[in-house]
C-alpha cells in the first residue's frame, strides 16, 4: 500500500493576496478555488511538476497565519529558480551552497517559510 503526501495546509491572513503570490510570483498552478458552503473557501495550488499541493482558504484551520512548518521544494536548477523568483518580485536569499545541497529561501506575505533545494548528486535535483 502506498502512502502519498498530497496536500499541506498553509495558514494565511488574506486568501486573495496569498493566491496571487503563489500563482503570479512563485509560479504554482491554481487547481481549485471554491466555496462549498459553511463559511469555507478551499484553494488548492500546486508547484509545477509536484504531486503535493498546498491549500489555503477560509474556515480550514485554526492555525495562525504564517505558522506553517518550513516547507521545501526540490528543483533541478537552483540558479534558474532563484532568478525566476527574483524577477517576479519575490524577496529571495542568495543561493546558499552546502555540501549536502544548494538552497534558496523565501517567505510568503504572511511569513510562511519556504526553501528551494537542489541536490547535485541526484538526477534532476
From TrEMBL:
Report domain VOC positions. Answer: 4-119
SUPFAM superfamilies attached here?
Glyoxalase/Bleomycin resistance protein/Dihydroxybiphenyl dioxygenase (SSF54593)
The protein's name: Glyoxalase
Q: Which organism is it from?
A: Arthrobacter wenxiniae
